[in-house]
Amino acid sequence: MESEWVGRHPFPGPGLVVRMLAVEKKGTDKDQLEIDSYLSTQDGLSGKILPIASVGVKGDRRSYANCVVLNDIETDWNTLDRVATHLSNRFSFINRVVLLPFESDLKKWNFQFTGMQLDKKCSDLLREADFTVESVIRKLGLYNKIWQMPVVLLPIGEKENEKSIVLRPVESQEAMTANFFRMERSVLQEIKIEVLKIPEIRYLFFDLTNKPPGTIEWE
């Protein structure tokens, strides 16, 4: 069998639908205050609860909870790993933590739920983004160094019809556990530049969640 087929990243059995989130779930003011209180002790990191939920694992059960986005102040990956894991483990209303690369001030961004239809239009948008991401990592020789890299479409933007993309690169041996892939900043920047050329895409996020508590796929 061709090495390209053997080394192909795993693809979810249900198809693209598990990489397209469609349900709105707003965080409460109380929840946001708890996040703010914790992050105030983390050397300049700040975060916002996004108005969506994703699948995760809490104890022995699947959970469905919110996602927190962190600002990017060039914090090292190990610290981001620690903070993301602590957020997911400490707060029952959080399943997943993402980074907004190269954006230090979250206050200027308005993360709105913009809606999602599980139709051909949104599927084609996700396919375009996925192709863009894969093209960059193949060009830079990273494809075979990453065990799997789901590209997820979120109904998050600043105005109607805008969407966002999440990069979910992971390292794993057997898929029962996984750690997020520590990507070089220069690579992340190139991916961001290329993805944001797609007119409908407003933000690009990077998933900092290990498995557990997060799952590899978002749905």
UniProtKB/TrEMBL annotation:
Stretches assigned to the GMP synthase C-terminal domain: 137-218
Signal sequence range: none
Pfam families on file: GMP_synt_C
GO molecular function: ATP binding; GMP synthase activity
The keyword Secreted is annotated on this UniProt entry: no
Keyword tags: ATP-binding, GMP biosynthesis, Ligase, Nucleotide-binding, Purine biosynthesis
Name listed for the protein in its UniProt record: GMP synthase (Glutamine-hydrolyzing), C-terminal domain protein
Organism: Leptospira interrogans serovar Australis str. 200703203
